[in-house]
Specification:
The chain has helices spanning 13-17, 27-39, 62-68, 84-92, 106-113, 117-133, 156-169, 185-195, 215-224, 252-261, 270-284, 291-300; strands at 8-11, 44-45, 48-49, 79-80, 97-103, 137-143, 173-178, 204-208, 229-232. With 301 residues, it is of the alpha/beta class. The chain has one domain (8-300): Aldolase class I (TIM Barrel, Alpha-Beta Barrel), CATH 3.20.20.70. The termini are far apart. The structure holds 3-hydroxy-3-methylglutaryl-coenzyme A and magnesium ion (MG). Magnesium ion (MG) binds at residues 16, 177, 179, 207, 240, 249.
Length: 301
């Protein structure tokens, strides 16, 4: 079984991570984090969300953050958009890439976006049409693809049904997300194999949270399926406000260490990445969630 020779790391710490902080992180710290991540060589940094500030006050400063970052040529700065109003915000901020997000379960869709899966897709249809017309790129995320905090088991067929809809809307990439980190490698393989029957594997990405310590194993299982794009979060920041108890995404440092060890190219510099993690953890006043960062910092001390 051959693994991909290169992987695109899609950093979600500034969005998926900071949306989950109790206290709102100041704009300059968000900007400092994003700029350090791009300086480390990350090709995509999900910068923020244009969602309702009533739902996610942590990211209500999206426009200000985007206005202040040092946009690095060749790097994409995707933003989450839940509806037409979010798209308008993204357009005004000069965004070139948006992320729409559906769910594989009805209960999660309701809690996260106050609508059914079908209603969400209908909203996204209008959003995608307009975004694509303007030459923006659209990515589609599918939450709770490996298990739902409200409904439990999620069948792979439920995930592939949503994936097909997102593909039909024009998403260039579809990201299969284990929002609460309950997946195991066998389940991961089953979901990716099922979705790959309908969506070319080159257009799939994985997004694993590490609640049960399975995220790296799941990443490896997805690599074996041919997946070559992975979301991760510097220092393992994050969780999900609508998924109680879920811990952060797999740490970018940990994924990078594994990929480096496998000889898989990413273009990301470990030392600079660890520094970006140290920067945000110093601000938050807590230790990094990355085991690799902990080990490297202990070794350097
Ligand atoms: P709603 O309350 O049904 O919508 O929320 P509404 O249209 O009634 O709007 C309520 C208020 O919000 C109104 O303001 C709107 O104007 C405003 P009011 O009139 O009361 O003053 N509003 C907005 N403001 C700014 N930007 C907008 C916007 N939309 C409405 N875009 C809605 C529906 C979808 C808006 C809401 O549920 C929402 O924003 N949800 C987003 C929740 C979210 O961001 N969750 C976390 C991201 S998903 C995730 O983390 C999972 C992921 O990482 C993958 C994984 O791990 O699985 C992607
Ligand atoms: Mg997430």
């Amino acid at each position: 079984m051959s693994l991909p020779s290169s992987v695109r790391l899609f950093e979600v710490g500034p969005r998926d991570g900071l949306q989950n902080e109790k206290d709102i992180v100041p704009i300059d710290v968000k900007v400092g984090l994003i700029d350090r991540l791009t300086a480390a060589g990350l090709p995509a940094v999900e910068a923020t969300s244009f969602v309702s500030p009533k739902w996610v006050p942590q990211l209500a400063d999206a426009a200000e953050v985007l206005a202040k970052i040092a946009r690095k040529p060749g790097v994409s700065y995707p933003v989450l958009v839940p509806n037409r109003k979010g798209l308008d915000g993204a357009i005004a901020a000069g965004c070139e890439e948006i992320v729409i997000f559906g769910a594989a379960s009805e209960a999660f869709s309701k809690r996260n976006t106050n609508c059914t899966i079908a209603e969400g897709l209908a909203r996204f249809s209008e959003v995608c049409e307009e975004a694509l017309q303007r030459g923006m790129r659209v990515r589609g995320d599918i939450s709770v693809a490996l298990g739902c905090p409200y409904e439990g088991e999620v069948a792979p067929a439920q995930v592939s049904a949503v994936a097909r809809e997102l593909l039909a809307l024009g998403c260039y990439e579809i990201c299969i997300a284990d929002t609460i980190g309950v997946g195991t490698p066998g389940k991961t393989r089953a979901v990716f194999e099922e979705v790959a029957k309908h969506v070319p594997v080159a257009r799939l990405a994985g997004h694993f949270h590490d609640t049960y310590g399975q995220a790296l194993a799941n990443t490896y299982a997805a690599l074996e399926c041919g997946v070559a794009v992975f979301d991760s979060s510097v220092a393992g920041l994050g969780g999900c406000p609508y998924a109680k108890g879920a811990t952060g995404n797999v740490a970018t440092e940990d994924v990078l260490y594994m990929l480096d060890g496998l000889g898989i190219e990413t273009g990301v510099d470990m030392a600079k990445l660890v520094e970006a993690g140290r920067y945000i953890c110093d601000f938050l006043g807590r230790p990094t969630g990355s085991r690799v960062a902990r080990a490297l910092m202990a070794k350097a001390a």
